[in-house]
Records
---
Amino acid sequence: MQTDAIDAGAAPAETSRIVIERPPPGLARGKYPWPAWGIGVLGVGILVVGLVYFVVLARRRRAR
């Protein structure tokens, strides 16, 4: 009987370990990583500018 045979159910040896590097999760994956709060501030700013635009547009139409 062979004692040095490899068991199919055994864990792989430490020397054959493969390390896969992954980027951090979330919004910091792009070329220019931003924190989540920065994306939130940008989104709120765009939303406020859009709302102000529509309010000004509605006031101009009402004034006619």
---
Amino acid sequence: MKKIFLIIIALASITVINAQTIQSSSYGTTGYIKSDGTIQNSSYSTVGYIKSDGTIQNSSYSTIGYIKDDGTIQNSSYSTVGYVKDDGTVQNSSYSIIGYIKDDGTVQNSSYSTIGYAVGVKKEWAAVTFFFFKFD
């Protein structure tokens, strides 16, 4: 019984540690977001971080933006660059719809064309990587 319990714990830990894949519309891997907020490119090089307090950093740990609890996305000067609504609607700072993050991880532009996939990624994190900040 102990062995089974340890195996279950080990498998659950591996699942939590694994990164969620960011994919293009053709399902090509463009990057990864780890559960701790580390953003990696397709070669697994770290290109940024999303901290638990909502701070967005580049690979040099310089703050480039913020995710607020209400879904507001701000740049490093605290100017609002957009919003992510609870339903996954993504708006720019003028409240114009620029895209959608579906519950299944599908990312669409304002015309409902699929531009990528972020399965298992928080909607705000997906919006940050697809619409608001360029991580190189």
---
Amino acid sequence: MASTILSAKASEVKVDGSTIEGLQSIDYKVNRNRTNIEQVGSDERMGVDYGLKDITGTLKVTSTSKKLDNLLGKSSDEAEFQIVAVLKKGDTTYTITFDHCYLDDKSFIMDANGVGTSTYAFSATSVKEE
């Protein structure tokens, strides 16, 4: 089976329907809490039990994003949002949807080249890849 190559130039990431201008990268990680089920009288496990799914990620933006900055300043009941990443290459489209997201923090760095980059860390309740 051949892998699908997706292009950053053709792709788009939206937060609550608004395209994030100056987006440099998006990355995320899904971590599932796992407990081993022990087999009585043996040093082998007989199975696993999965618990909480923890979804975290970052959005890196050239300079800053007013949309994301505004979300960071809201109270918890107003701060929930959705991220939809539509990744493309030619006619191929791959959509990743993060639901019930919250911004956890923001960091900013400016290097010697003089281009600032903001990194926004987020968490999500669920992620769907289609």
---
Amino acid sequence: MKKRIIAACCAAAAIAAGLYAIRASQMRLEEPVFLTHYIDCRQCSAGKTIMLNYVTDKSDDRSVVSVSFPECPELTFDVFDSETNLKYRYHKMRRVFLQSKLDGTEPLAPAAATTAHVEFSDGTEGDFDIGQVIMENIPEPQERLVTAQNTGANNVGNSTDTMLALEDCTLTGITSAFDESCGAGVSITIDGGESSAPLALHKDDTVTFDAAINVSQPYVYNAYSLDQTLNFSDESGNIYRGYLQNIRYEPNFTESGIIAFLKDRGALD
């Protein structure tokens, strides 16, 4: 009797192992798949960091050693690849931090990077779809109309920035390099909704901007950083720009969410 029970248990374990092996082969990723990122990287001067998330096969232990953007060849980066603690049955999430090496005094006109050329620790390399990263560098002006006083953010897109006016000026509007076709819309209120642009500010006035990201399907499994540009003018009509740079959204993945994302990207059948 015991032998039959043991045999049945062994048979069940063998069947379970076989089913897992079949499923694992169906879920296998030959190459990493990068999340569809939408990042507004206004200040690409030295030290500015861009974080890209990607999904790999669970058995893929390669790290990233180099990243470049064919559409922005003038940009170079130091690379810091790190594995997150998000591990799933068949896959794992990793992230790579890119720290710009661009001279801060060098202007860079806006350019959209949709492809990253990635080199891995085993010598393999490839081009990967990363969504859209807007690269731009505007050297910091000697004069500013406002300065950041308090900032705060969380990973679901909510942020608060309080600005202090250094002299009399007017907030003429708020603009973004992205539209809602990227799958995320940014809503901003000024002073809790009591004010709107254009808004006249006097020296030592403060103004608070509250931002939130509204993510739509099927883009819920993307990562966003959608900085907004604040447009100011002084009493002489000179134009200045400031930025809301804490607007972030990172998804919380589940096993089924990872699989749905990979199927949506065409990486799995």
